Amino acid sequence: MKRTFFIILLFPLLVGCCNRAYVEPVKAVGAVPSFENGMEQGVSACYVALYDGCIYIAGGCNFPDVPAANGGSKRYYKGIYKAAVGDTLVWESVALLPCESAYGAFASDGGRLYIAGGVTPCGAQKSVISVDLKEHCRVDTLASLPFAMDNCAGAFSGNRLFVVGGNCDGKASNRVFLLNVSDALAQWEELPVMPSRGRVQPVCVATDSALYVWGGFSPSDADGDVIVHTDGCRYSFSTKEWSPLGDISFDGNVLTLSGGAATLLDDGTIVAAGGVNRDIFADAVSGRYTMVEKENYMHQTAEWYRFNNNMLLYNVELDRWSLLRSDAAFARAGAAIVADRERIYSVCGELKPGIRSPYIYSIKR
After folding, report:
1. pLDDT, tens digit, for every residue of 156-194?
2. Domain range spanning residue 67?
3. Tell me, what CATH number does 225's domain have?
4. Which residues contact 281 (CB under 8 A, 6 or more apart)?
5. Domain for residue 8, yes or no?
């Protein structure tokens, strides 16, 4: 009787364990290439594409010698690297950018990686290039931007390359530019401005029918007012008009994708992750430093900055966000996201101001 009683109690527990859905953990599948001295410490604001079963990484920046908190100098990188996707990334060096670069707008059409503007050791740039991933990463020059632009976002739809927000000749911008890359003689066109103040470090994604933008921040105006955007906006290609999108809210918390990353999945869903904490970031950018003294701001632990650790899905038809996964691996600013039919990859970014992560993480879709 005692043995029978024990088995009856244990059986429901075993059934419950067997029926529980298995959630695959977030995996670190590799680290950044180490061909350029200092890059192995991790980078942010690099350019990333996924094509024909390979991840490509180009550019990026970090503080490899003296930490930023101690007044170190930022270093930029110019290598273009390739690794086949899998459980472990093995990198090979395939080409070079024209110059060391980070913080530009970038987007991929599946066979080319486009990079527009950005910051080099010489400052913000107007230059625009395409990297032909089908042709051994051949670099071609396209029409220059009308202004030097940095910390902007890029997207691609059809034959159209979009550059959104960022700094435009050094000023926070709500401007949007378009280039038809199928026309060798085409010049950049300006679309109607976004219905908001400037958006520095936003995210944007283009579908077949619209351009979506979220996040970004606008530094102090004459009244000292800093805006860290928690909302977004949508530009319809058919009506050529902007419409507002509400705040990104999850579990009662309003999030910003400022400094985050986003991409379009093959099913038409948008995936986004990372970004700064609205309140902590605004407090520092405003110069108020009410949460911590200015001289101590850069010296806090990574957890103190409370970067967004959620990977979210956006349904464009329902205008609705949902949670895919929360994980410390996604709490990054200046990371990049790419995806294939099976997995989503989060690439590098900042753990905290000035400190980069070298890791590439993978999550099953």
Report:
1. 999 999 999 999 999 999 999 999 999 999 999 999 999
2. 23-364
3. 2.120.10.80
4. 217, 228, 256, 258, 259
5. no
